Automatic annotation (TrEMBL):
Protein known as: endopeptidase La
PANTHER family: ATP DEPENDENT LON PROTEASE FAMILY MEMBER (PTHR10046)
Species classification: Bacteria, Pseudomonadati, Bacteroidota, Bacteroidia, Bacteroidales
Keyword DNA-binding (UniProt): no
Taxonomic source organism: Candidatus Aphodosoma intestinipullorum
GO terms for MF: ATP binding; ATP-dependent peptidase activity; serine-type endopeptidase activity
Aminoacyl-tRNA synthetase recorded as keyword: no
Length: 209
């Protein structure tokens, strides 16, 4: 006798799912960007939220249980945004005497690694320009002080997580193109990829002028 088990029967046999998949839900806010993360149980989407306010002290606050490497990415992103404000479409005077708060929700979960760099930079630009990021767009990539975008790992898991969440476009480093070519084409249906070499190109795609 062969049992006929359907997807909707799994909860009855296996119990409630231990892991809930995120669904894209940030339309309408500036300063909020969807990043992509790799975890031990697969990929997931990760929200980066930035707010700014007038403050003579002009400090950077990072919250959300971030590890050292991720904190360094945020510091690097802010430094790059300040030194290339005009190229990024930011009025340099808008950055004067401004304190910046970068938060990554789900603070109980530790987060680290360099792959959120481009999402943090885009979040900063969105916050300073008061322009929203393109809807249903996600990104992952390490950044450098020279403005380059570097490849990161876990691409297959991140892409599948993005598709599950309802993402339609993904920005990646051009050197990650080979990782996409290794994924079964069927899984990529409905997704558009933007392969870029530098941070300014990524921001132009994410925040249309």
């Amino acid at each position: 006798h062969i049992a006929n088990i359907k997807p909707e029967d799994l909860k009855e046999y296996l119990g409630t799912s231990r892991y809930e998949h995120d669904v894209y839900d940030i339309s309408g806010y500036y300063g909020v960007v969807t990043g992509l993360a790799w975890t031990s149980v697969g990929g997931e989407i990760l929200y980066i939220e930035t707010s700014t306010h007038k403050d003579k002290g002009a400090k950077l606050t990072l919250t959300g249980n971030l590890g050292d490497v991720m904190k360094e990415s945020a510091m690097l992103a802010l430094e790059y945004a300040k030194s290339h404000a005009a190229e990024l479409g930011i009025d340099p005077t808008a950055m004067e005497d401004q304190s910046v708060h970068v938060h990554v929700p789900e603070g109980a979960i530790p987060k680290d690694g360099p792959s959120a760099g481009i999402a943090i930079l885009t979040s900063l630009v969105s916050s300073f320009t008061k322009k929203k990021v393109k809807e249903r767009l996600a990104m992952t990539g390490e950044i450098t002080l020279r403005g380059k975008l570097l490849p990161v790992g876990g691409i297959k898991e991140k892409v599948l997580a993005a598709k599950r969440a309802g993402i339609k476009e993904i920005i990646l480093c051009v050197d990650n193109k080979k990782d996409i070519e290794d994924i079964t084409p069927e899984y990529l249906k409905g997704l558009t990829f933007h392969f870029v070499r530098d941070m300014q190109e990524a921001v132009r795609i994410a925040i249309p002028q």
